[in-house]
């Protein structure tokens, strides 16, 4: 989604490369909650997790199983602690709803 793309564009090349490497590891089947984790208490929101130079980068995502199990990234954040802010989970849930509403309108 646009917010995820804009977030990634705002990061340095080194950080984008590290995030991309972690995403590819998950794509290849690596099951590691340090890289990709379902967020407790969310409506099906997951996060790609990257730690780089003592800073946490989070890219929020959800599954679109109607499109052959496509993972859609909603947005990202940079944070100094490991705790995920509730407002960011809520934002991801809202973007997920918007995605499916728009998708269903096109059908």
Short description:
With 107 residues, the protein is of the alpha+beta class.
Description:
With 107 residues, the protein is an alpha+beta fold. 41% of the residues lie in helices and 28% in strands. The protein has three helices and four strands. The protein has helices at residues 2-9, 13-27, 86-106; strands at residues 36-38, 46-52, 55-64, 70-79. The protein has a four-stranded antiparallel β-sheet with strand order 1-2-3-4, with helices on both faces. A hairpin with a 2-residue loop joins β2 and β3 (55-64). The longest helix is centred in the last third of the chain and has 21 residues, at 86-106.
Q: Pairing-aware structural class of the strands and helices?
A: alpha+beta
> How widely separated are the two ends?
19 Å
Backbone shape:
globular
Number of strands: 4
- % residues in beta strands: 25-35%
Q: Which residues form runs of ≥5 with pLDDT under 50?
A: none
Helix content: 40-55%
Order of helices and strands: HHEEEEH
Work out the helix count. 3
Largest sheet: 4 strands, antiparallel
Backbone CA Rg: 14 Å
Side by side, the strands of the main sheet go 1-2-3-4
Mean pLDDT value: 92
Fill in the keyword field for this structure.
globular, alpha+beta, 3 helices, 107 residues, 4-stranded antiparallel β-sheet
What is the topology?
Blueprint: H1 2-9, H2 13-27, E1 36-38, E2 46-52, E3 55-64, E4 70-79, H3 86-106
Antiparallel strand pairs: 1-2, 2-3, 3-4
């Amino acid at each position: 989604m646009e917010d995820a793309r804009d977030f990634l564009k705002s990061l340095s090349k080194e950080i984008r490369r590290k995030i991309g490497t972690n995403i590819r590891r998950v794509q290849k089947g690596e099951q590691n909650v340090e890289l990709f984790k379902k967020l407790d208490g969310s409506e099906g929101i997951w996060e790609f997790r990257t730690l780089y130079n003592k800073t946490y980068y989070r890219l929020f995502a959800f599954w679109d199983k109607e499109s052959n199990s496509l993972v859609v990234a909603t947005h990202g954040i940079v944070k100094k602690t490991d705790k995920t802010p509730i407002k960011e989970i809520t934002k991801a849930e809202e973007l997920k709803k918007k995605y499916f509403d728009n998708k269903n309108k096109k059908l």
